[in-house]
Amino acid sequence: MGKTYDVRIWSVRQRKDRGQTSAELRWKTGETPHSQTFRTKTLAEGRRAELLRVAHAGEPFDEETGLPLAELRQRDDVSWYQHAREYIEMKWKHSPGSTRRTLAEAMATVAPALVVDTKGMADARTVRTALYSWAFNVSRRDEQPPDEVARVLAWFERKSLPTSALADRMKVRAALDALTKKLDGTTASASTIRRKRAIFHNALGYAVDAGRLPLPRVQWKAPEQVDEELDPACVPDPRQALALLDAVRAQSARGRHLVAFFGCMYYAAARPAEVIGLRAQDCDLPRCGWGALRLRETRPRSGSAWTDSGEAHDKRGLKHRPRKAVRTVPVPPDLVALLRWHVTAYGVAPDGRLFRTQRGGLIQDTGYGEVWAEARSRALTPSQRASQLAKRPYDLRHAAVSTWLSSGVEPQVVAARAGHSVAVLFRVYAKCLEGAAATANARIEAMLRNGR
Hints:
The structure is a single chain. By secondary structure, the chain is α+β, with helices and mostly antiparallel strands. The chain has three domains: 73 residues; 130 residues, no CATH class; 208 residues, hpI Integrase, Chain A (Orthogonal Bundle). Helix content is 49%, strand content 9%. Strands 2, 3, 4 and 5 form a four-stranded antiparallel beta sheet that branches. Strands 7-8-9 form a three-stranded antiparallel beta sheet. Strands 1-6 form a two-stranded antiparallel sheet. Strand 4 and strand 5 form a beta hairpin.
């Protein structure tokens, strides 16, 4: 749709066709002529007055149809609630389960801010459940929702603002402000705000493409937060990490079955979803010396409601990498020995996976989370347990990257092994890099001293 401000509107002229009189309105947008015939001159003059008013106000016209852009958008307009459902349906087919959940969460956060009024709106938690689990979950479109959910969705169908209303910048700001808040009213993390804002921006772009909205330009800044930088207080040092692994091993058979699982996070900086998808054929485990893991698949838990297979875990490639990308991570003899012992003791799944439940299924985050919580209670002091130290199994990955950096390994090598960019490494592990910088400074100083 090409817009133009070059509009010429001629006077109405009357015509006779087969004995009947009609009135013709002619105008031109850019180089494209247009005409419209009316039964009476009065109707034609009324339409001419409308077009003149829009042209004199300096509003753009669509050159192809000859209509004011605002009129075109109004003709194609739908409610924001309906637009959000169409947007998610458009994204659904090519999105993994975790992304589908994120899309639904973002739209469920924004939708309550884009209503005519809040009279009769249910409480925030009920609204969030209805929108997140039903309205914006394409897999449940054919299911009959509970009565309470149906009432909430019917309310949004009546009360949702038209998408064209977001041409008002203050409406966009209200939506942006809404996505900065959690259900309890507190401010969400910077990464959550950034993720939801990106989805909302993409949904606005979809509205522009659909001709429902002009491109909004809003000057808005997210609340000041710096939560991407890793807090060293949560990272266990090598002695603490090994004590935690020993505490995992010292538990029941369940713990012994998972010690190599946690070992992959600590020695190879692997993400939990990458370890779940690790297969024996992707491991080089020599009898002595260093080995290697070829990470090529992740099995993130998205929930059965969000996956095409109906299983709780998706099957995907590496995070932020092409589907067939492979990340090779050299691993020290300690992990080689741990994995060789695990294969000898437990074997592998029929599809080659190293780690599985007793029934052969995928390792669940709730299961290994319980084992990790017990390990913390055994390996850490009361004050350490009350702190953020190794609060999550994921902190073992942080410990691995921190250890590599403090050992003087070049950042680009660390980033490649950890599976993210150097920019992310510098941003997230800034405090760890400070220690590496001190080591580098000491080496430079020693070299300069030797040159005197």
